[in-house]
Design a protein that fits this description.
This protein is of the alpha+beta class. It is 37% helix and 16% strand. The termini are far apart.
């Protein structure tokens, strides 16, 4: 199965993923994000490449079922991949990471939003990230009934600098964690933006 992600038949653009009907299946699976331009400071020398684009992140949908028997996520490949392309940093760790790494280059910053100020997004900057992803990010996916198993295999076998979970020994883990913490700290020091 990982071969479909490491040697995909094609990589899909933002416009293609957001079409209706979407080509992304409403099934369980793993998705892989390739970038033709990495955010500043991201080490790409050891990354897997396809057609000049570097594989920097993998994700799954749904997440592993809770061990305590709690409710199982109803997310699918379609809902997650589409959200990563058009959502916000509060609901997408990939978007949060990209926003943090691109904040200076794109002139955006993490902010507290909403009535309680507990949500952290890049507010109007999310649209700027949409444009950046449309230009530089491509995705592929593979259906898998237990995607968390394949995700663990990929993170253990491929250099994925934008993955934090299960990747504590990755070469970029400490720098990325610190960058995200700095953005959160800065956001908490600024006034809350209305929705």
């Amino acid at each position: 199965m990982s071969a479909s992600l490491l040697d995909p038949a094609r990589l899909w653009t933002r416009a293609e993923v957001l079409e209706r009907p979407s080509p992304v299946p409403a099934k369980n699976g793993v998705y892989a994000w390739y970038f033709d331009a990495a955010p500043p400071g991201v080490p790409v020398d050891g990354c897997h490449r396809v057609d000049g684009s570097a594989l920097l992140y993998v994700g799954i949908s749904p997440k592993r079922p809770p061990a305590d028997g709690g409710p199982v996520s109803k997310q699918t490949l379609r809902s997650r991949v589409r959200y990563h392309y058009r959502g916000n940093a509060y609901g997408s760790t990939l978007r949060l990471t990209l926003d943090v790494l691109l904040a200076d280059e794109l002139g955006i910053g993490l902010r507290r939003v909403g009535s309680t100020g507990s949500r952290l997004t890049f507010s109007d900057g999310e649209a700027v990230l949409n444009d950046w992803m449309a230009e530089h990010a491509r995705v592929c996916w593979v259906e898998d009934p237990q995607p968390w198993l394949l995700e663990t295999q990929l993170i253990g076998g491929v250099d994925l600098p934008l993955n934090l979970a299960q990747n504590a020994y990755g070469s970029f883990h400490a720098q990325l964690s610190q960058a995200r913490a700095r953005q959160r700290e800065l956001a908490r020091s600024l006034p809350v933006l209305p929705r």
